[in-house]
Design goal:
This protein is mainly alpha-helical and about 100 residues long. The protein has helices at about 10-20, 35-50, 55-65, 75-80, 85-90; strands spanning about 1-5, 70.
Length: about 100
């Protein structure tokens, strides 16, 4: 699964959807270079990994769609050919070599 949460708004939506608080969001004083900041990030990743194991990919995608979190299945190149979303978009290229 791939989740698009690069902005603060989308990160907050993601955190709300999975039930996690991330004190870094919107914190202008946050210094990611500090050892305690890196440790906090590692703990947050561990917490999120445990949460993601509790549902299937389809269940997460349905929840994220409901909550407005951009997400989709992770596909390998050979799987993209069978993806119905790509042809529907009308804007894609496939290079077969």
């Amino acid at each position: 699964m791939v989740v698009g949460a690069l902005s603060a708004v989308l990160r907050r939506k993601l955190c709300d959807a999975i039930g996690v608080e991330d004190i870094r969001i919107g914190n202008l004083d946050w210094d990611p270079t500090l050892p305690e900041s890196r440790e906090y990030g590692k703990q947050l990743v561990h917490q999120a990994e445990e949460i993601f194991l509790q549902r299937t990919t389809d269940a997460w995608l349905a929840l994220f769609d409901e909550k407005g979190v951009p997400a989709g299945p992770f596909n390998f190149t050979q799987e993209l050919i069978d993806d119905l979303v790509l042809p529907a978009s009308g804007d894609y290229w496939v290079r077969v070599s």
